[in-house]
Amino acid sequence: MTSLTPYDAQTALTAIRHRQEQTSDEYVRHARSRPYLVVSALGLFAVCSSFDLPGPWNTAAVLMGNGLTLGGLYVHQRRAAVRRRAAGREVLFYTAVAVLLLVFFWTAVIAAHFLGLPARHTLAAAVTALAAVAGSYALRPFTETVIRGNGQG
């Protein structure tokens, strides 16, 4: 029977931390996937612009947009080399972003209405989808901090 020396314990801890860092790096890299961002923006646009469509077309647009977004999310998660659940601050962050996008969309709809623009939901949907894409790039450093800090406190 061999005993664990302090050097062996420190080496094992260093290796564990290194693997955790590699896992975080891979998760962050995959989370920044450009194709998923494009699919999400298109799904957001389809759902939000559906309010301008008549009759059964608005339902079809909502179903298509939700299918596009959920299908893209499923494929994105299945292709991930690292799978983990979002928890704590990360879930709170994603919820806050979703609420901010909704507020932004409805603010754009109201602004388009007061400006007398036609197809105000479609215009607001386009502006919101573009804002989501631009915001995802602007928030990357903060998102990375939140992802890396997930489960740390």
The overall strand count is: 0
- The mean pLDDT is 87
| Global outline | elongated
Q: Show unreliable segments.
A: none
Give the N-terminus to C-terminus distance in angstroms. Answer: 37 Å
Please, could you describe this protein's structure?
The protein has 153 residues and is mostly helical. It contains 6 helices and no strands. It starts with 5 loop residues before the first helix and ends with a helix.
Give me a quick take on this structure.
The chain has 153 residues and is mainly α. The protein has helices at residues 6-31, 34-49, 55-78, 89-114, 120-138, 140-149. It contains 6 helices and no strands.
Topology:
Layout: H1 6-31, H2 34-49, H3 55-78, H4 89-114, H5 120-138, H6 140-149
Helix pairs in contact: 2-3, 2-5, 4-5
